[in-house]
Amino acid sequence: MTEDLSPAERYQASRLRAAELATALAPFRELYEFGLDPYQIEACEALEAGKGVLVAAPTGSGKTIVGEFAVHLALQQGRKCFYTTPIKALSNQKFADLVRRYGPDKVGLLTGDNSVNGDAPVVVMTTEVLRNMLYAGSQALRGLGYVVMDEVHYLSDRFRGAVWEEVIIHLPESVTLVSLSATVSNAEEFGDWLDTVRGDTQVIVSEHRPVPLWQHVLAGRRMYDLFEEESDHGGRGTARREVNPDLIRLARMENQRTYNPRERRRGKMVREADRERERRQRSRMWTPSRPEVIDRLDAEGLLPAITFIFSRAGCEAAVQQCLQAGLRLNDEAGRRLVREIVEERTASIPGEDLHVLGYYEWLEGLERGIAAHHAGMLPTFKEVVEELFVRGLVKAVFATETLALGINMPARSVVLEKLVKWNGEQHADITPGEYTQLTGRAGRRGIDVEGHAVVLWQRGMDPGALAGLAGTRTYPLRSSFRPSYNMAVNLVHQYGRHRSRELLETSFAQFQADRSVVGISRQVQRNEEGLAGYREGMTCHLGDFAEYAGLRRELKDRETELAKRGATQRRAEAAASLEKLRPGDVIHVPTGKFAGLALVLDPGLPAGRTNGHRGIEYHDGPRPLVLTAERQVKRLAPIDFPVPVRALERMRVPKSFNARSPQSRRDLASALRTKAGHIPPERHRKGRAPAADDREIARLRAALRAHPCHGCDEREDHARWAERHHRLQRDTRQLERRIEGRTNTIARTFDRIVALLTELDYLRADEVTEHGRRLARLYGELDLLASECLRAGVWEGLNPAELAACVSALVYEARQADDAVAPKLPSGAARTAMGEMVRIWGRLDALEEEFKINQAEGVGQREPDLGFAWAVHMWASGRSLDEVLGEAEMPAGDFVRWCKQVIDVLGQIEAAAPRDGSTVARSARKAMDAVLRGVVAYSSVG
Questions:
Q1: Are 834 and 861 in contact (CB under 8 A)?
Q2: Could you give the count of Cα atoms lying within 13 Å of 561 in the half-sphere of its Cβ?
Q3: What are the angstrom distances between the C-alpha of 295 and each of 69, 326, 328?
Q4: How far is CA 494 from CA 135, 512, 883, in A?
Q5: Which residues touch 413 (CB under 8 Å, ≥6 apart)?
Q6: Continuous segment of H or E residues that includes residue 869
Q7: Which of 814, 833, 808, 825 is CA-nearest to residue 902?
Q8: Cα 344 from Cα 355, distance rounded (Å)
């Protein structure tokens, strides 16, 4: 091609190549065997130019390369880079990757569990660790040049999302921020916010999947393509995709009756033919079993595969079903290699624990290339599954959706058993964002030519709805930021109350709330222009017509109020008169379809009022059942009696009277007419209207007549403009109230939190008290409760196991809420201390209600959960794993995770506890050592 260029063009091209080679990006690109994608190059060039970047790209598209370039730049410039991840598993994986590239001297790791080379120029950490560093003013922040926030879309997380915003807001201005996110539909909005709080930020969005994704539905023995023409291969092009008509026919066939029941009489041969046709149709639509699915994928060359099952028990059952079906996905050499790796990784686990953990059943599955992956598994076991899967020695993994949000573990295929999952409250359809996240694991870059997403046919499946899930790119990022007690004292300590309030107003949550009122603000502006025009139209040369219109409105409102009051009083009098009726009373129904003479059969009194008669009771007022003079039996309503009614006569209702018998009705109606037909209906004269004697109305009428505008010839014209002005002004005020409700919401919540903390003497204006400094060291949902327990000395004198049990109530939350069974608790001092913790929480809960701090909005202290206290007390007391898990009825993975969280909070309590005359700090240190043993100690990921 260069031969076709002119000498000048060749010179220009050589200069461009030289300039490119002089950049930091050129040697970085040499580190990879494959070329970088255009969006990766664009992001890296922006970083080198000194800009912050937000990169939003599909799962598995290689956006972490941009984060690795930030590491490269930091090392080249002699500065530090912090690489943050949402979960410890990701931190461990990224730490291992960077150590392989740059060596152990240059890379460190800081998580809640591990601290490795924390002073290195590149440190991988969980986001919470960086947040705590910022509040503590850590020396490690010196020389920090870059922060990579991997999986930044976690800021939508209801429980932990606020941490991401805290970090973004509080990082020093000199730090360049690299934000890596899954594909979100409002990346530009998030980028605008980053631009506001962090300075120049370039937004790079890529919808392109490097490995095309094909969508399928597996029904019976056949695998159908979801789309008839999939020329855009999961987002590469712009071709329109139509749902496969074969699938639509299949769904229609399932919904149709296979034969008409009326044709059953047509003979045996016809019925047999119908049944045979039905059997053939059903044979095409059955949902294959789990072993059949794996067998089919293996035959099609679509392994390794991850099958998402939204249940831990379902994942374990799937492995057992495959083993019982005799599936073997590894050859003998693979089996031997799996056993070697597993035995090496689990060598530190004591032999007596292996049986308790189900090790041998788990190993059998691994040797055959089959495994489960969920949060209830021991972390070590999960790590082994991940390693074997990446190495191709496990080819079928049955996982819960947590795997889709976790570590880098791509597959050739992803299988979804169902499109419905339990969200903690109900079974709900998965969202387009969740579908994208789950299927994003399909297709391994550099290994697979294409990825495959397979959905199993389920009864009642709608192919059109599935196509909508697969084709929708809607995954909006929504802030979950809320101020907490710990955040409040840390902010006030560093910045003072006023500056803290201003900082919180820069949060993404407030940014989104403010943007949502832009349209309302524009409407208010248009209304203001309309109001100006109306004011001009109602201008009167004789005086202030706005004042005159106000008097007219006051008069009208007063007259309406009195009329309503009169109507209410008349209804009450009418209802009272109905309650006095008894069976046998002859009345005159004043209005309605059945107006005229009537005999009361049942008074139909309101619930709770019997008037000596056990009739039918109603909650909306008396509803008497009457016989009219025209022989109709009807249940009347209060609306039929706008005025009071009284008994004109009394007559006996025969016991033999049957309302359903025409003869009975005719005889009794005849007796009614004979008895009372001559009595004329009572005429109710309208009394004097309340307005006639009302002093306020008299005053307003006098003021109107005395007003200068009353004599204006164009008075009614002006009044029409004034009425329009009033209505538009009323609407405008409603819009302004809506704006006020959405603006400064975060700051108002902060003000309420500060007021409560001032009441409890944690803050005094801009001063943080000793109690406040203790609270600043306590992070977590129940930070204020922990601080109050330290303050009240609730944990003084407790031994390590008792303290661990008490602390567990601060972190543990049962998976099944509202469990009716009271948890088992340790006796003695621990039980007493936990009782005191619940009492303190009750006092705080009442205070929060007083200060309008609402737990439903994600702010405030939930009730402590005592469900893990007995298990952790046993463990810290030295009991065996078998005994503890048996008593706790809890999977090993959950047990380890909760123990790790207890250890984390014990560490905070040790740091925050008083030093003089207190036993808590020493007991907390011993409790950490007592819990961090055995299965908890050798599980490197929590």
A1: no
A2: 9
A3: 42, 11, 10
A4: 8, 26, 48
A5: 297, 302, 303, 304, 305, 306, 442, 451, 452, 453, 454
A6: helix 869-876
A7: 808
A8: 17
For position 265, what pLDDT does the model report? 46
Q: Which strand ranges, in their side-by-side order, compose the sheet holding 122-126? A: 115-116, 107-110, 122-126, 80-85, 144-149, 176-181, 52-56, 201-205
Strands 413-416 and 451-456: parallel
Identify the pLDDT of residue 231: 47
The pLDDT tens digits for 749-786 are: 889 999 999 999 999 988 999 999 999 999 888 999 99
Q: For residues 904-939, b (16+ Cβ closer than 10 Å) or e, as one string? A: bbbbbbbebbeeeeebbbebbbbbbebbbebbbebb
Mean pLDDT of the chain: 83
The rounded distance, in Å, linking the Cα atoms of 684 and 692 is: 19
The pair phi, psi for residue 606, each rounded to 5°, is -60, 155
Residue with tokens 């999302």: 161
Token readout for 20 is: 């490119």
850 vs 842: CA distance, rounded Å: 12
Tokens 């007391």: give the residue: 877
End-to-end Cα, the chain, rounded Å: 56
Specify whether the CB–CB gap between 293 and 216 falls below 8 A: no
Structure tokens that stand for 314 in this block: 């379902």
Using CA atoms, how far residue 200 sits from 56, 66, 144, in Å, is: 17, 17, 18
Within 479-517, where are the H helices? 485-504, 508-516
Strand partners, 217: 224, 455
Of residues 403, 484, 426, the one with CA closest to residue 159: 484
Q: Whole-model pTM above 0.85?
A: no
Question: Can you tell me the distance from the alpha carbon of 222 to that of 599, in angstroms, rounded to the nearest whole number?
Answer: 74
Residue type, 32: Y
| 862-882 pLDDT tens trace | 889 998 999 999 999 999 888
**Cα–Cα distance, 10 to 18 (Å, whole number):** 12
| Residue located via tokens 């009272």 | 576
Query: How far is 109 from 111, CA to CA, in rounded Å?
Result: 7
Instruction: Tell me how far apart the alpha carbons of residues 127 and 82 are, in angstroms, rounded to a whole number.
Output: 10
Q: Considering just the CA atoms, what is the radius of gyration of the chain in Å? A: 38
Please, are residues 606 and 626 in contact by the beta-carbon 8 Å criterion? no
pLDDT digits (tens, 9 = 90+) for 620-646: 678 899 999 888 898 888 888 888 888
Q: Contact at 8 Å (CB) between 589 and 636?
A: yes
